[in-house]
Amino acid sequence: MHSLSTTPQPELDLRWKPAIATVSLGAANLHPIVAKLDAAAINGQQGLELFHDDLAELAKTLRAQRSDSAPRTDRDYEIDAAHAIRDLCAERDLHVVALQPFRHYEGLIDRERHAERINELKHWVQLCKILGDSLFILIPSSFLDASEITSDRECLAADLAEAADVAFPVRIAYEALAWGTHINTWEDSWDLIKRANRPNLGICLDTFNIAARVWADPTSATGRQPLSADEDLRESMHRLVREIDPDRVMMVQLADGERVDPLTPFLRVPGLPTLLAWSRNARLFPYEEDRGGYLPIGEVTDACINGLGYTGWVSMEVFSRSTGEDNPAVPMEHAARARRSWLRVLELLEKKSEKESI
Q1: How many domains does the chain contain in total?
Q2: pLDDT tens digits for 61-106?
């Protein structure tokens, strides 16, 4: 076992631990997981949100390397990949914090599909128990067509409760995606979490999804919703601080959004929600104004962290056109950007905290 040499780090606030999503370090089919882990460790990240795509890609590689003909399933190879990733992370002093995204789960009208998802969830729970000692599975709100999922909140909450019971003691974090069909605000997700009322079920707060839903409009000439959006966001953050139990926050995810031309082709893909298309192509690390970042994530970050008194993992979760570039330098470049962003986040959080204490 060995540890990679890392970039010297300044004295950091120990209330928060920096993490990064593996998707932020490159596309799974272009950038090997080992390159991503090296980049994360060298640039001071301590935790990883492991995207299932990266684990599945490693499983494919392990399958291709196998020489015997004994019958084995895709899940068998994913279990092998989970063991390998845990060992690789241990060598680099990295911790897998979450496995995600467990998509399109809650509210399925077709209960046979629901049963299939529960079966898959049991496999993910097995993977989590291999990957580390304190992981959670992240379930993002479903964005299937409204004909496929119910809007009945009691049903949605019951599905989340079932997932938590199946996963126990592994934790489940629920996150509202800005383009979710029925659940698309933090208020919506928190309502379901309270209704489900399970000890291992909590919330994931994402600065991009919060700001994108309440404040932004990438198809507008201004990039934002009408002037009332400032007040709407402010009121939402006041409610967040008042209502959310910080002990139920499993992670805060950070990302900004790029100001793009409203006529940009990737915003207008038939059948794809605009906010989803924008998210997949144009997220940025926090405070990358030089790259077009413009969302009011400072206010959102302050509420989610200082306002709630949150301590724990803070992860950079960035989807971008640049992560899909077929360039071996992508993981290191993105990890370095994440490190610079994290230092800026810490600086601004501390300034806001000091200002409020005066």
Answers
A1: 1
A2: 999 988 777 788 999 999 999 999 999 999 999 999 999 999 999 9
